Structure prediction request, 259 residues.
Amino acid sequence: RGRKQETDIFSDSEEDTASIPTITHEQFQKLEEFLKAKDNPALLPVQIAYYTGLRIGEVCGLTWQDINLEEQYLTVRRSMRYNGTRHTTEVGTTKRSKVRTVDFCDTLAAILRAARTEQRKNRFRYGELYHLNYYKEVKEKGRTYYEVYSLQRTEEVPEDYKEISFVCLRADGAYEAPSTVGIMCRAAKKKVKGLEDFHFHTLRHTYTSNLLSGGAKPKDVQELLGHSDVSTTMNIYAHSTREAKRTSARLLDKVVGGE
Prediction:
């Protein structure tokens, strides 16, 4: 495994914001175009995160019941993750165990409508090979887990399985897990010029920076992101603007160097 990045053990921030960059809209478009050309299932999770700032587990945990396309908002109720101890993919509460509402723009509304239409078409294209998704409640040692499974339409469904309509799916209907989205993003950044430092959480920081630079109130952005403290929100913005200033300052090297 790669070496973990060192963090400030005395920091009161919930994230190490100094190590996470942001991307420009042009860079996002390049990433989007690359994923579209490859029919990469990471495309929809990346688009949702860019326009809402959701964490990767929250994106994968979204269901169509969480999304109101008419009024253009979504409700973040759960997060998906892989439980390494139990070797299962599960849905559970969000990082702060709180439900929050996030409004979204016309662009994402159009993307989601198109995705829903495509998923309906895929049901017919794949026929009996199409997958449906389920969760199963399991109680162990005083704790409750909600395990996630995908089954082909022809497979017998156990009585204790309950169907769940995730938004982020593969073409065959199987749910998209955070781990595989992360792997696909790491592969994409090697192919798209200028995204060498990109990873999925970059989208959350970019969303934060875009809102604050556009004049949004820090407290409102904090609530949209589900941060426990407004200082975390502002730290992300301070880092992104600091990076922009550094880039501008380096332009002087080209001027004085005659490049």
